[in-house]
Specification:
By secondary structure, the protein is an alpha+beta fold. It is built from five helices and nine strands; from the N terminus they run βββαααβββαβαββ.
Length: 217
């Protein structure tokens, strides 16, 4: 299957300098080439970029503005705060282990506001990326989930991974519609712990499988 371009609302020209985030020096190479400005349906310009130190706090703040059901869909449980494992993952940056793309809205005073995040756990030995996606509840309907998930898929393919996959709860209808629109297919024989309330979806990124039939695991 073909990974479609993000959409026509992508802007290759960054906003004026006053809208840019301040550069920082890191003890590792920050993959700046994967930054991208996009325009949402309501006209706001948002920076899609890899995660970096300092994002854990913004992530926890964003979590507080996500509806309980959306949290359950993302973490498979009702939670009152961002899980410690998720916070630690954002505090210990390791681009060889996982890649997280965040959507930042930058106010005119340069104050960033996190609107969503698409995370990918990089399973190098399996040439597979396991994704997770969460968009702030008051930002639904802006096309942000599709932009983030497509961005992650493009990254996975650019790094030579063969597939991107994830598990979706059967009652998470918006996510099931989204992954189908992006190009995922259901794994026919997926039976996690004999549960029937979860569906595994996968996108094959290898050129030889583009446009192929559904696959089994």
């Amino acid at each position: 299957m073909v990974i479609k371009p993000l959409n026509d609302r992508i802007s290759k020209i960054p906003p004026p300098l006053s809208w840019r985030e301040v550069d920082h020096s890191f003890p590792f190479r920050y993959p700046e080439e994967h930054e991208q400005w996009v325009e949402l349906k309501d006209g706001r310009r948002v920076l899609i970029r890899p995660y970096r130190p300092g994002d854990a706090t913004a992530y926890a703040t964003m979590f507080e503005r996500v509806d309980p059901d959306a949290i359950r869909f993302r973490f498979f449980a009702y939670l009152k705060a961002l899980p410690d494992t998720e916070r630690r993952r954002f505090e210990a940056i390791d681009y060889s282990r996982d890649m997280n793309f965040i959507a930042n809205y930058l106010h005119r005073d340069r104050r960033p506001e996190m609107l969503g995040v698409a995370g990918g756990f990089l399973e190098v030995e399996k040439s597979s990326v396991e994704f997770g996606l969460m968009v702030r509840s008051d930002q639904q309907g802006q096309g942000l989930g599709k932009i983030l998930l497509t961005k992650l898929a493009h990254y996975a393919r650019s790094q030579g991974f063969r597939e991107i996959r994830g598990v979706v709860m059967v009652d998470n209808e918006p996510m099931l519609r989204l992954v189908k629109a992006v190009g995922f297919q259901e794994v026919i024989d997926y039976q996690p712990f004999a549960a029937s309330d979860e569906i595994e979806v996968v996108m094959d990124l290898t050129p030889s499988r583009l446009g192929g039939a559904r696959r089994k695991r």
